[in-house]
Specification:
Layout (H helix, E strand, L loop, with lengths): L8 H21 L8 E3 L2 E9 L2 E4 L4 E6 L7 E6 L5 E4 L5 E8 L7 E7 L9 E6 L12 E6 L2
Parallel strand pairs: 1-8, 2-9
Antiparallel strand pairs: 2-3, 2-6, 4-5, 4-7, 7-8, 9-10
């Protein structure tokens, strides 16, 4: 069977796949990233940086919690990490917020939505670990947050 016009369907499929993969690569190279919203019962954890030898805590890092509203982004709570990289924002009511973690514009900041739920009187078994990065070949500049079990 002869195909006319655009060629055979297999060629069209291959061209489409290459175009799609090329777009993905371009998006990744531009540092565009989509993060998953974290759901926690407390805003506590640590800020680290990733090195070849492992993680190291980061100090003097600004940690802010902002209202998650379109019209206004008022700061609800803020603090600066100490030598151990630990942060703990106390007495935060359940709701949606924006967690902003940054260091004077040197590292790629973490700035994303977070949902706080009621702890129902129980202590949280997990903590937020924010990794601030400076690797702009990785999505989000190497910056991300995850939940880990408390040690």
């Amino acid at each position: 069977m002869k195909y006319r016009g655009w060629g055979n369907p297999f060629s069209i499929l291959l061209i489409g796949i290459f175009a799609f993969v090329g777009c993905l690569h371009k998006v990744k190279a531009q540092g565009v990233c989509v993060r998953e919203m974290l759901t926690v019962s407390s805003i506590s954890g640590k800020v680290v940086s990733q090195f070849n030898s492992g993680e190291a805590p980061l100090y003097d890092i600004a940690v802010e919690l902002l209202e998650d509203r379109r019209d206004k982004k008022r700061v609800i709570a803020k603090m600066t990490t100490g030598n151990d990289g630990v942060f703990n924002l106390r007495k935060i009511k359940p709701g949606s917020y924006i967690l902003r973690v940054s260091y004077k514009g040197v590292l790629a900041p973490y700035d994303d939505r977070i949902r706080v739920v009621s702890s129902k009187g129980k202590e949280s078994k997990s903590e937020i670990v924010v990794t601030l990065g400076a690797d702009f070949n990785k999505p989000c500049g190497g910056t991300y947050a995850e939940l880990r079990k408390k040690k």
